[in-house]
Specification:
The protein is mainly α and 467 residues long. The chain has helices at residues 2-5, 14-28, 31-39, 46-68, 80-89, 96-116, 118-125, 128-150, 160-166, 172-181, 195-212, 218-229, 271-304, 316-333, 344-349, 355-375, 380-394, 406-421, 425-442, 451-466, and strands at residues 74-76, 153-155, 187-189, 338-340. The termini are far apart.
Amino acid sequence: MNSFFKLKENKTNIRTEVTAGLTTFFTMAYIIFVNPEILSKTGMDYNSVMLATCIAAGVGTLIMGLLANYPFAQAPGMGLNAFFTFSVVMTMGYTWQQALGAVFISGIIFILLTVTGLRKSIVDAIPPVIRMSIPAGIGMFIAFIGLNNAGIVRTNQGPIIDILFANSGAEATELIPLINSAAPQVLQLGNMTDPAVLLAVIGLLFTSVLIVLNIRTALFFGIVGTMLLGIPMGVTHIPENLLQQEFSIEPTFMKLDITGLFTSTSDDQSFFGLLITLVVLVISFTLVDFFDTIGTLMGTAARGGFLDKEGKLPRINRALTADAVATTLGALLGTSSVTTYIESGSGIVAGGKTGLTAVVVAILFFLSILLAPFAGIFPAAATSPALIIVGVMMMSSLKKVNFDDIEEALPAFSIVAFMPFTYSIANGIAAGLIFYSLVKIVRGKYKEVSPIVYFITLLFIVRFLFV
């Protein structure tokens, strides 16, 4: 293992890599249950999707570890599964089989881009300020996910719009009490008396102390310690049977419908309109998955010190190949697009530096096929503090951005703001590229922007307009 993964060369050891793998897995194990919960709303079989999720995540992560020798983990992406369910199926009218067909096509496009080297060219064309801002944006995103999952900060979209429409003729003096009673804050502090929220706060404090004491396994022991404390608090629940009941992948395996994508979902839709809709659909899957992966790779790699002196990631084509193959395989098995997970940062912070970390995560995903209830022992209150701490650590990349120069400040801020507030890495990168291109054009420096960046920016604008 030392020879294959180059452990000594990377100044790590088996114990550290295994610990990092455990840390990464337990911070992202929620996807085993959340992904089938979301996709099953389309009519897909819950247990079949769960099995597809474990296999696709395991295979993608295993390829990442063995081929690229990086500690990055993969699984069906959050956001991508929501787009699959609520936009493609429920809004656009495609069946889940057709949606899987679109995912499969996007996976093939990824493979072609990777084999031809175009994918690497796109990464290399990303401006330095965008690269430096991505880790911080992801850090904010991770921290927001952690705070929200823990219940420390919660979203609240009070029925303000409903109140305004229902009382359109009312005076302002009559509306103000109604609006106030609707708790209009979009974000607000959670219920600190809730045992789960209290456990998360205690876990955050405990993990912070371990970090301050420079304990390398702080995140892992923070997760385990918080989980154990949750038992007497009634937050951690030990299942009676740790062995998963048998289920089959047959309901979703090879059920993708590519030819059905060329059938109109509306009686009055022309062939041209159908083609435009299909192209936009595939571009949407491709862009979001592509830039989720690129953003995560660059951001977490920067935190792990994997980038070279030019800010580029060695062996990036191998890492991208793992993502492309996993996405294609996932569509065949019966799950939405697979992407590199930002939770990989927790394992990197725990000391993971090689593909051995990824191999450990992959093995745990495969074991979860039989031991899924065990993976669910760790409540969100136990894993969320680790995500918040990782978010703190990833903010350091912003010190390289010159905020006195608006050409850097505007794109950088857009990335950091849009990633958490739109709940999407891809949207954050899109905003950064759009503002970067705009500033350069207005200042007459349009030649400094790569044609690839202009093209990608245009694709993002098309996606925002049509989807």
